[in-house]
Design a protein that fits this description.
- The chain is of the alpha/beta class and 265 residues long.
- It has a single domain, classed as UDP-N-acetylmuramoyl-L-alanine:D-glutamate ligase, CATH 3.40.1190.
- It is 38% helix and 18% strand.
- The strands form 2 sheets. It has a 6-stranded mixed beta sheet.
- Strand 8 and strand 9 form a beta hairpin.
- The protein is globular, with a radius of gyration of 17 Å.
- The two termini are 25 Å apart.
């Protein structure tokens, strides 16, 4: 049997199964890698709302990271909900000491229902401590605005934000356009020297819970498999588009995407 690449997600747990750790592991499995998890926070949530959240103690988060790296060959790491400045700094310290090569940082800030998943004072820690370690940072438009202090209304605005985030020290930035840019579902990848415009198809659906987590995890999986950055992002974008197209009408709010649409034919 072929050796399975092993990919780690460091993020929060979503009890509803559509986002966070649960979405990450499903996306990684669908991409053909073995997913592992370090849980930073536990949320009580469903498709309608996040009703409560509890941050795990720093020593337990660090112990999870140690346990993974002591035993597994980690080919890529994806970070999601890190919640507090202390958690961001602890995770960044660990990842820096471990010299992680393929780090995808999804700077999760707010849930679909509007619940703050990153404390305001932690944004500076993300910028100062975590982003400089990243091979790729994957903010949506709201997160890019928070990271840069800029308003983003057009593709040119998004390009300027990508340059600003790149200056924080990461190797590349993917600004996810969603439906707010002048070209819907178009993403912008900047590698420090050139832009790659990734046009997409905007799908009218309420079932988009966990799309950011899923997209970033699929990219991390493809990097672990040896794809170059542009190909990893392109392939992951095709995957998330189809997962949204086959979104599941589960629950009574924003349903999840279907990570395993390909298995259902």
């Amino acid at each position: 049997m072929a050796h399975l690449k092993q990919v780690l997600t460091i993020a929060g747990s979503d009890s509803g199964g559509g986002a966070g750790i649960q979405a990450d592991l499903k996306a990684m499995s669908a991409a053909g890698v073995f997913g592992m998890s370090v849980i930073t926070a536990i949320t009580a949530q469903n498709t309608r709302a996040v009703t409560a959240a509890y941050d795990l103690p720093i020593p337990l988060i660090e112990a999870q990271i140690d346990a993974i790296f002591e035993d597994f060959e980690v080919s890529a790491v994806k970070t999601g909900m890190l919640s507090s400045s202390d958690i961001v700094q602890a995770v960044a310290r660990k990842l820096k000491s471990l010299a992680v090569e393929n780090l995808v940082v999804d700077p999760v800030m707010v849930s679909k229902s509007g619940y703050d998943l990153l404390q305001a004072d932690a944004i500076e820690s993300v910028k100062d401590d975590l982003i400089p370690l990243a091979r790729l940072v994957t903010p949506n438009l709201f997160e890019a605005e928070r990271l840069t202090g800029r308003s983003i209304k057009t593709t040119d605005d998004a390009k300027a934000a990508a340059r600003a985030i790149h200056r924080l020290g990461c190797r590349a930035v993917l600004i996810k356009g969603g439906h707010r840019l002048d070209e819907p579902a178009t993403d912008i990848l900047f590698d420090g020297s050139e832009f790659t415009i990734l046009p997409g198809e905007y799908i009218e659906t309420a079932n988009t819970h966990g799309t950011g987590c899923t997209y970033a995890s699929a990219i991390a999986a493809k990097l672990a498999l040896g794809n170059d950055l542009i190909d990893a992002v392109r392939t992951a974008k095709i995957y998330i588009t189809e997962a949204i197209r086959h979104g599941l009408a589960i629950g009574h709010g924003h349903g999840p995407t279907d990570h395993f649409f390909a298995m259902r034919g």
